[in-house]
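> forwarded from #structure-qc
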């Protein structure tokens, strides 16, 4: 049975390929980034000792012609013929593709870009990557390098004179001023250190930003400005219908919302709907089209049809419990015992980091669904609140 891997700068995720083409995620181990022998041992441990094939989604550029990986964030793989050496070390066939290409294709076929002509999927995590899908076909380019927007010495740390105190950062690819060096999670950390002299993780920076910390707010403003400027060039060049995002930073929907608004303010085309959004298969879902939750499947004739599990909750604790125990999507409300009312903006904001799609119930009171004009106004206010905070989609439980 083929074992599939999603190899990033921080973790290696793995699982077995199922007969229906999905991948049941089995677990994760830390990526031994600086030790080739430990890396090989980790792959062998996860895949087991047999002769079946291994399929790898790899963070970083991968030249399909030479087999050389250009992985700035995993030094032991950088400039190495990874496929050939893994096959020799493990004695089994190895297939490798770029993780951003895999993500972009999944989003274009089955995710946020389904039915849309141009999808540019991007990774914002320990590094920056991208993949381009046009009319359902992955654009590989020479050596499979198309979409790799993270590298190239193009970044202006002053943002055209708007910003001060940010340095020219060297990149793991050997150049200085790459998008990867500035707009990754590590880039955010570098920006914070340059501006404020303190070392925080990207998670600590975003948490402080959400709490209203002035220093973190300055960092996030600089980071999103630099990222939006870089993305705006690609939007004007490619004309994407949607830019789904994966990687660790995609978990912060408020951050993506800020990037989206800045990007749309800089580009030539008029986008009336959000452009930069969290991908349906973002982060933990990249390894598979869906997780294999057997209780959520139903038989119909000779075919197995997957039944989606939606859980309605009125607390953030309940939302996380549902997500961690197999819910496919979450519906937020208040006063669940009364049939559910419109949730608070605080609850919707707190739900922005959930790893599954989130909906908000819009309902001004319990009881019947025929409302007065004043109650319809409350519904409209609820809709506007959802659009403003944008952590989730919404469902109207009353008359319009």
């Amino acid at each position: 049975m083929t074992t599939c891997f999603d190899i990033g700068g921080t973790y290696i995720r793995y699982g077995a390929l199922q007969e229906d083409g999905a991948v049941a995620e089995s677990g994760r181990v830390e990526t031994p980034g600086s030790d080739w022998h430990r890396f090989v041992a980790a792959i062998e441990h996860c895949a087991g000792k047999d002769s079946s094939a291994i399929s790898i989604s790899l963070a970083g550029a991968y030249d399909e012609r030479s087999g050389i990986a250009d992985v700035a964030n995993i030094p032991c793989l950088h400039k190495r013929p990874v496929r050939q050496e893994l096959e020799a070390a493990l004695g089994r066939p190895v297939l490798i593709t770029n993780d951003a290409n895999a993500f972009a294709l999944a989003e274009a076929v089955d995710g946020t870009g389904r039915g849309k002509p141009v999808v540019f999927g991007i990774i914002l995590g320990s590094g920056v990557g991208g993949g381009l899908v046009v009319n359902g076909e992955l654009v590989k380019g020479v050596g499979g390098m198309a979409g790799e927007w993270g590298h190239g010495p193009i970044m202006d740390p002053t943002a055209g004179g708007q910003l001060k105190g940010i340095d020219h950062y060297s990149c793991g690819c050997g150049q200085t001023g790459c998008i990867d060096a500035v707009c990754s999670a590590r880039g955010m950390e570098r920006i914070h250190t340059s501006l404020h002299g303190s070392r925080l993780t990207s998670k600590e920076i975003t948490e402080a930003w959400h709490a209203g910390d002035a220093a973190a707010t300055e960092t996030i403003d600089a980071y999103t400005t630099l990222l939006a400027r870089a993305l705006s060039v690609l939007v004007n060049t490619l004309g994407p219908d949607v830019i789904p995002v994966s990687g660790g930073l995609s978990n912060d929907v408020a951050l993506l919302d800020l990037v989206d608004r800045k990007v749309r303010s800089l580009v030539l085309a008029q986008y009336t709907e959000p452009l930069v959004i969290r991908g349906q298969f973002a982060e933990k879902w990249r390894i598979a089209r869906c997780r294999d939750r057997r209780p959520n499947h139903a038989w119909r004739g000779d075919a197995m049809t997957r039944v989606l599990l939606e859980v309605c909750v009125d607390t953030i604790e309940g939302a996380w419990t549902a997500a961690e125990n197999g819910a496919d999507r979450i519906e937020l409300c208040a006063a669940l015992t009364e049939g559910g009312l419109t949730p608070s903006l605080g609850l919707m904001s707190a739900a922005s980091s959930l790893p599954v799609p989130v909906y908000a119930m819009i309902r001004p009171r319990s009881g019947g669904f025929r409302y007065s004009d004043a109650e319809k106004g409350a519904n409209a206010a609820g809709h506007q609140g959802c659009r403003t905070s944008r952590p989730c989609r919404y469902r109207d439980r009353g008359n319009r």
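QC bot note: Confidence is low (pLDDT under 50) at residues 284-306, 393-400. The two ends are 52 Å apart (CA to CA).
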